[in-house]
Give the backbone structure.
Amino acid sequence: MPEGLEVEIYRRAAEAVVGRTVASAEVDERQAQASEIRSALPGCSVVGVDRVGKLLLIDFDRWQLGIHFGMAGRLIVDGFAPIETLAYSSSQDRPDWDRLVLTFDPSDGAAGTLRVNDPRRWSRFTLNPEVDSLGTDLFDLDPQRLYALLGRRTAPLKTVLLDQSVVAGLGNMLVDELLFQAGIDPSRPARSLSLDEVERLVATARSHLPEMLASGGSDAGLLHPGIRKSLGPCPHPDCRGGQLQRQVFGGRTTVSCRKHQRFDR
DNA sequence: GCCCTTGTTACGCC
DNA sequence: AGGCGTAACAAGGG
């Protein structure tokens, strides 16, 4: 599922269309702004691509298009999919799953297309999206700021870290992976964390997120989709005799180690 | 054919 | 007002 890492991979692929001009735009009829997007984009040039959390931003000379990939949306640029197989999605690229197709003008820069292919149909396209409600991007975490935010919340840490207004870009798998690597129990009330623990969590994010980005994304961690299903012994190199367990917080499946992520550590 | 999966939003309740 | 918990949503895959 496209979390911040996947969207960063998409962003890098989308840089290929900077400088091109949109010839035509096709948008899934069910999108709230389908007609606005169809009429706004033709004739516009791409001046840059950006990302905030899970939101990809395509900057045009007059507008900004926000793309949220839901849980299964794949970006395809000039026929190339930067992420071939996405967990919980499909590796097929069926034309009837195209939800957004931007075709570029061959007479003005390069031709080609930028597509969002999404079997689940949960991708969302927004003209000039509001980004003020999003929290710190997952690559810009700051221990003091995060500690202050967590201190006001009584909900389980797992739930609060998934809140996009606290940290933008962390999804279900990344939160589990970071808490697993940092050795912190996801069930703890967010405000029970010490500053030391928040610092450990942020240090883990700073070291592991770039590594996972380089090795393909959110499912490149120790708690990959296969082990999330099978559970079994803890795969952490420093943990001996731990067992993985599955719990649900805020309706989200959470995998953690009974031993090295215990509250009493 | 049922159940699981995801991120976000819409509720009701406190 | 806003935090918290839960349901609902789409639809492919097991």
